[in-house]
Design the sequence.
């Protein structure tokens, strides 16, 4: 009897081992299981955060819905996995999620050493500092000697070190794994300064007891291009991830919105025709149906709409488009043409 | 004829021979385990290669580029990842060693207190044990951290006793910077300890031979504390004192005991102490009442009875489970990650793992370290156990 149980355990362990091998064709896997598994943050308002009913919202969440719309024509066919900064890459590498859309900074080492590919930039961000107004500070250069709260395993942690070193200042790090723990420590006055991406600071400021008692200092100390990530070695899925974002940006540039896209379907503009699948076989070339981009625009919206309702003027965060405006409006959002 | 048939039947019944069968199954088990290990490692390597993940331990010599809030050894952001690993390791060892020390003291006191004749002491000890051992440790740690942060004042309103300041940034204390001649004090401590051990052994031998008693504890204390004090006076106090001063945002200068460290130490010590208390109580109760009565009948005083008759016999029951608690405490210290204390898990398999992405290597190293710490602790405790166990005739 003992032996039997033991061999049973061995057999199941062997099964578990062989099942963990990640498959290369992500699109086939996604289609087979019927939904996209998307890795998001544990809760950052505007980017990815669940509401009271457990519904996720945010710009990173909308991107995942966009992929689901492109693949299935239905933005609800997506499941979310909440990940800490520490867990995110391992979850993607191991195949637990299909795409990571979790305000993740595109850096060279992440792109080249982790077996991952960044599919674009859905938010241009930069690292900033938040302090209490009572301290009466005007510049980050006055921060020498301060205790700084920061989340572990982020580029933020490294930029912080570099910035203080470059400016010959000292600081005392207070490091936590989860965003909520950093928030709590800052709220309890364990540290003088909170540092993370500026967008994150605005979002976190709103959750503090008295948002007006805190201010974000003007210095932006780093480039933080945030974007979705997929596994390396699956070009088809990589293309889908890239072009989901590109389709949303192109749609804004062409003036297509979730409201007018049905009317524009019969447009004579060849650019619109190509994007919406009336001309050419662009959908087929990335393994999707011809109306892949139409589905994204119809059900999720263009980049501008998404930005507005998640982080922009239509949201509590009220972040200005700034560097995230279209290139034609003086910003950095620029997508290659569908041609 | 008889022999011949025996040989034949034993050949036929090799299948039913218990020895042969047991050897076969043991070989089979070893083969399966070896194959599983091989398959697992092979699978991991293949998958990593397929996923284009760089592997190997070369990253350990790269520049870390991040800072750590508490470090017992020299560390800056220019140090290597390997150095960061040592920082995490020493922080884990520090909190574990101090945790074991305090948990043992509290645990023994509470355990003996539960057997006290005093009603109040007995009940307080009971409430302590029943409360603390029944609440998950993680919650207790969060509680202590919130309590420590919540109760303590802001850095500008720090409580002050002399040159010691207490605030929610930690306990700022003067730092003693050794000058030339300071090593003499360290030597005095070492000599004091050795001398105390020798005196203790001599006193025990003399008592065995002649029955005369010697105030071992008093003399030992005098040696261990007195010698360094004497050295301190002789060398003329070879330390510069650096007092903490409030400047800018924080206290500068001096040494700081982090609130994260205090919360972790409190949580670990109090939680483990509640288990140790029960172990101690069970150990004492395991010694038959006849032993006490026999000692009293011989006219031995109660505290001597406790020290020389009850406790030595209780120890052989106490030590094996006590070892488990020490190991638990060491491993539980990895919960530090929840309250931001830079232990091995937080620094190495947290920050370093994420900055390098070398999950397999980092997790493997971390696991091996905990395994090594645990094995060393249990080896020491086994040795100690064999020392104190009763010599049976």
Sequence:
């Amino acid at each position: 009897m003992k032996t039997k149980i033991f061999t049973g355990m061995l057999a199941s362990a062997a099964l578990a081992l062989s099942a963990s091998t990640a498959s290369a064709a992500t699109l086939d896997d996604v289609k087979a299981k019927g939904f996209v598994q998307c890795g998001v943050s544990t809760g950052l308002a505007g980017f990815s955060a669940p509401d009271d009913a457990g519904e996720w919202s945010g710009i990173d969440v909308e991107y995942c819905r966009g992929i689901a719309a492109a693949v299935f024509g239905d933005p609800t066919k997506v499941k979310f996995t909440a990940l800490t900064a520490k867990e995110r890459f391992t979850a993607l590498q191991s195949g637990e999620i299909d795409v990571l859309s979790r305000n993740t900074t595109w850096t060279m080492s992440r792109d080249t050493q982790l077996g991952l590919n960044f599919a674009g930039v859905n938010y241009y961000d930069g690292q900033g500092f938040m302090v209490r107004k009572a301290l009466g500070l005007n510049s980050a250069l006055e921060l020498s000697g301060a205790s700084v709260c920061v989340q572990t395993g982020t580029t933020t942690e490294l930029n912080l070190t570099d910035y203080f070193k470059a400016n010959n200042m000292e600081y005392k790090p207070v490091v936590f794994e989860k965003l909520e723990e950093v928030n709590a420590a800052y709220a309890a006055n364990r540290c003088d300064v909170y540092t993370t991406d500026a967008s994150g600071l605005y979002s976190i400021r709103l959750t503090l007891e008295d948002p007006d008692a805190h201010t974000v200092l003007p210095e932006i100390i780093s480039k933080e291009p945030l974007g979705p990530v997929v596994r390396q070695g699956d070009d088809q899925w990589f293309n889908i991830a890239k072009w989901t974002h590109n389709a949303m940006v192109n749609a804004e540039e062409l003036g297509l919105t979730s409201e007018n896209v049905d009317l524009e379907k019969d447009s004579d503009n060849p650019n619109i025709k190509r994007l919406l699948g009336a001309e050419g076989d662009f959908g087929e070339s990335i393994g999707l149906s011809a109306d892949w981009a139409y589905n994204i625009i119809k059900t999720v919206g263009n980049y501008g709409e998404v930005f507005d309702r998640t982080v922009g003027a239509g949201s509590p965060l009220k972040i200005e488009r700034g560097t995230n405006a279209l290139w034609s409006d003086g910003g950095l959002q620029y997508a290659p043409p569908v041609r | 004829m008889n022999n011949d048939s025996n040989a034949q039947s034993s050949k036929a019944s090799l299948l039913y021979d218990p020895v042969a069968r047991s050897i076969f199954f043991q070989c089979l088990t070893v083969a399966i385990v070896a194959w599983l290990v091989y398959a697992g490692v092979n699978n991991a390597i293949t998958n990593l290669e397929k996923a284009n993940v760089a592997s190997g331990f070369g990253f350990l010599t790269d520049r870390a580029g991040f800072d750590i809030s508490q470090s017992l050894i020299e560390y800056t952001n220019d140090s290597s990842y390997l150095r960061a690993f040592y920082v995490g390791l020493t922080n884990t060892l520090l909190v574990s060693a101090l945790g074991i020390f305090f948990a043992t003291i509290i645990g023994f006191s509470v355990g003996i207190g539960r057997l006290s004749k005093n009603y109040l002491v007995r009940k307080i000890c009971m409430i302590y044990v029943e409360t603390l051992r029944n609440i998950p440790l993680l919650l207790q740690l969060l509680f202590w951290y919130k309590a420590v942060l919540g109760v303590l004042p802001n850095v500008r309103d720090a409580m002050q006793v002399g040159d010691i300041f207490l605030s929610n940034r930690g306990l700022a204390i003067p730092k003693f910077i050794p000058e030339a001649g300071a090593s003499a004090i360290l030597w005095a401590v070492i000599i004091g300890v050795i001398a105390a051990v020798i005196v203790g052994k001599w006193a025990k031998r003399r008592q065995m031979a002649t029955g005369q008693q010697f105030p071992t504890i008093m003399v030992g204390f005098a040696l261990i504390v007195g010698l360094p004090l004497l050295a301190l006076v002789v060398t003329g106090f070879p330390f510069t004192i650096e007092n903490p001063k409030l400047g800018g945002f924080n206290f500068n200068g001096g040494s700081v005991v982090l609130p994260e460290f205090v919360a972790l130490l409190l949580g670990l010590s109090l939680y483990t102490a509640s288990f140790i208390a029960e172990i101690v109580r069970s150990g004492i109760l395991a010694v038959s009442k006849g032993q006490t009565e026999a000692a009293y009948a011989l006219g031995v005083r109660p505290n001597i009875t406790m020290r020389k008759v009850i406790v030595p016999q209780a120890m052989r029951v106490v030590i094996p489970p006590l070892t488990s608690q020490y190991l638990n405490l060491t491993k539980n210290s990895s919960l530090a990650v929840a309250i931001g204390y830079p232990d091995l898990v937080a620094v190495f398999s947290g920050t370093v793992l994420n900055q390098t992405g070398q999950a397999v290597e980092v997790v493997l190293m971390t696991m091996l370290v905990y395994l090594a710490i645990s094995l060393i602790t249990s080896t020491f405790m086994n040795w100690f156990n064999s020392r104190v166990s009763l010599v049976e005739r």
Q: What stands out?
A: Residues 2-50 of chain B form one domain.
